[in-house]
User: Which sequence fits this backbone?
């Protein structure tokens, strides 16, 4: 339907910068998940695209046209809100046909289009119900149908699932994905749930502190995070600051095996990131091999097929934690308090430039 | 009605005591209104009332004043409160303060202030509609509360934004969404205003206007049973109004849809 370009957008509230120099280009029909911790500016960015907030600088371009100065009602941007936003005085059907009605369509066309969309979200049987007679999940489906009824160029969803329970949430997110594919509308879905983002997005945009840190496919974001923050925010794993030393990263007195460190000049500050599924454990016996670390098991978390084990690493001033995911039947040997050696394939860790883990 | 099963003896005792506290004075007043001297009881007092042309004059005046006050409140208060909630939520404490002022300032002080200060045009000061000004302020706290509850029960900013993103202008949003959502709150505030205006005595009496409350007082000075009859009638009237609020409030469950 339309490409969306956010170019150099900035926004401050009372002198505090909430969005700094935001650039995001979306292809036609793409589903981007905007992922980041609470307060990082996701809603603000969405509201700027929707036209509810004017940016201090920069442009919003939809389908090649600069809409920065247009009011929200002139933009043809569909929006689904975090809180329930259905008009309480109208039935589901009347909610959905509100857009076409405002646009001046004839009543039969309004109703026909509203019925099509209620059918798309699977709520045909509930068209005569008022919002308070619908469950939370149903209300958000109606809200989605209502937003789509104006045939928007862009669809914006601001944590539409966050108020729903886990089961409904998983079901509805698949449905959002299906509907988005069917309609082909360019979509931004805001979430603070990384699983949600990874499972349905074409690309994931990770935000922190008013900046976009990385915009890439879910697989890339997971496997090759560009920042320590992205690594820590997506999935789980350990990120340490250290210094590149050939095929190893030195963290205080420890040397951690990481072939990728060789790409960084000897002695430069880097961050090393190891996914828990790459870490192998064995009971302590004699010397610790080169590139491996020894530590004490602090806790084990049973996750069904997998058990996640947290180690506190020996030999560092600041306490370091490493996580290891083991098949649950192998995890019994590693009870809290036992001393173990953690190892990994030197190709597994990712090494990123920059020493500060807090970026 | 399974809730009543769980009341227990203490609960019932409190309910009955409260009921008596309300019912006894009413029943006594009603009984008194039927008293015709000695041990005779009848409808004499009500006949006297109905025969008095002044009753209907006073009632008509009170109704007119009430409607005018309701109109003034709805036209001024509702838009102001919608605007405040949407665009100036920081002003809420100011609104709250103004809305409670009439509770703090005694009515008689208001009358004194009003009669001393106002030197307005004759078309206003010379007519009973002059009373709409003080009545507006007397009813303000009640009307404000009622509308405030209504506005808080809907997410006004989100609803307006939703409407805007669907292409609606401010006018359409207010007409098709905000006002219908506030319907029961507005009816509630109108009925409360009605009750306030009907019961107001100080202003009307001091400023020498013959309203319903003034009439009750007057008749009470020489025809006590008629006054009692009038009280009973007023009570039933008010009760009807309150019942109206309740019914409308419950009507929210199935509001009139937009066409
Ligand atoms: N209208 C506003 N006035 C002042 N500060 C705001 C306003 N809107 C958002 N903020 C601030 O901007 C930051 C980002 O908010 P938001 O975009 O809602 O974050 P997110 O949606 O990622 O949780 C927050 O610190 C919030 O307090
Ligand atoms: Mg948000």
Assistant:
């Amino acid at each position: 339907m339309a490409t969306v370009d956010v170019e150099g957008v900035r926004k401050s509230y009372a002198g505090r910068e909430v969005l700094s120099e935001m650039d995001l280009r979306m292809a036609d029909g793409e589903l981007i998940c905007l992922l980041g911790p609470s307060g990082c500016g996701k809603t603000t960015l969405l509201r700027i695209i929707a036209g509810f907030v004017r940016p201090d600088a920069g442009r919003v371009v939809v389908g090649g046209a600069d809409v920065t100065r247009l009011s929200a009602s002139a933009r043809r941007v569909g929006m689904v809100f975090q809180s329930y936003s259905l008009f309480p005085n109208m039935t589901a059907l009347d909610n959905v046909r509100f857009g076409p009605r405002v646009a001046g369509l004839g009543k039969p066309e309004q109703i026909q289009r509203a019925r099509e969309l209620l059918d798309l979200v699977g709520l045909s049987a509930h068209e005569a119900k008022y919002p308070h007679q619908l469950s939370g999940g149903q209300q958000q489906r109606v809200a989605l149908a209502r937003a789509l009824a104006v045939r928007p160029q862009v669809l914006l969803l601001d944590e539409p699932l966050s108020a729903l329970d886990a089961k409904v949430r998983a079901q509805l997110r698949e449905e959002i994905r299906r509907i988005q594919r069917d309609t082909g509308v360019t979509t931004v879905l805001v979430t603070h749930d990384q699983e949600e983002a990874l499972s349905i997005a074409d690309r994931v945009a990770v935000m922190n502190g008013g900046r976009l840190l990385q915009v890439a496919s879910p697989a890339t974001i997971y496997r090759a995070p560009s920042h320590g923050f992205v690594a820590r925010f997506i999935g789980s794993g350990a990120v340490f600051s250290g210094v590149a030393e050939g095929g190893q990263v030195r963290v205080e007195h420890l040397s951690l095996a990481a072939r990728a460190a060789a790409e960084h000049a000897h002695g430069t500050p880097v961050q090393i990131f190891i996914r828990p599924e790459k870490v192998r454990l064995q009971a302590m016996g004699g010397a610790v091999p080169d590139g491996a670390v020894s530590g004490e098991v602090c806790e084990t978390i049973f996750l069904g097929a997998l058990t996640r084990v947290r180690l506190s690493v020996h030999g560092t001033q600041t306490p370091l934690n490493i996580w290891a995911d083991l098949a649950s039947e192998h995890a019994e040997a590693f009870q809290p308090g036992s001393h173990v050696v953690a190892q990994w394939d030197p190709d597994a860790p990712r090494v990123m430039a920059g020493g500060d883990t807090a970026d | 009605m399974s809730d009543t099963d769980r009341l227990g003896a203490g609960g019932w005792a409190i309910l009955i005591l409260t009921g008596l506290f309300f019912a006894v004075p009413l029943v006594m007043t009603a009984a008194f209104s039927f008293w015709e001297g000695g041990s005779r009881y009848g409808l004499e007092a009500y006949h006297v009332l109905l025969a008095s042309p002044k009753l209907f004059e006073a009632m008509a005046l009170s109704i007119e004043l009430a409607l005018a006050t309701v109109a003034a409140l709805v036209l001024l208060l509702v838009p102001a409160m919608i605007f405040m909630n949407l665009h100036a939520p920081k002003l809420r404490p100011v609104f709250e303060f103004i809305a409670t002022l009439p509770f703090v300032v005694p009515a008689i002080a208001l009358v004194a202030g009003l009669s001393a200060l106002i030197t307005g045009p004759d078309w206003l000061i010379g007519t009973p509609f002059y009373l709409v000004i003080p009545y507006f302020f007397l009813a303000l706290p009640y009307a404000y509360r009622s509308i405030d509850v209504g506005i808080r029960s809907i997410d006004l900013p989100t609803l307006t934004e939703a409407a805007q993103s669907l292409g609606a202008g401010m006018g359409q949003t207010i007409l098709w969404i905000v006002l219908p959502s506030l319907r029961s709150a507005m009816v509630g505030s109108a009925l409360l205003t009605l009750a306030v205006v009907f019961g107001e005595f100080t202003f009307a009496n001091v400023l020498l206007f013959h309203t319903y409350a003034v009439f009750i007082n007057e008749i009470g000075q020489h025809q006590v049973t008629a006054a009692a009859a009038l009280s009973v009638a007023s009570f039933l009237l008010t009760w009807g109004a309150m019942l109206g609020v309740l019914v409308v409030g419950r009507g929210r469950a199935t509001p009139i849809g937009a066409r």
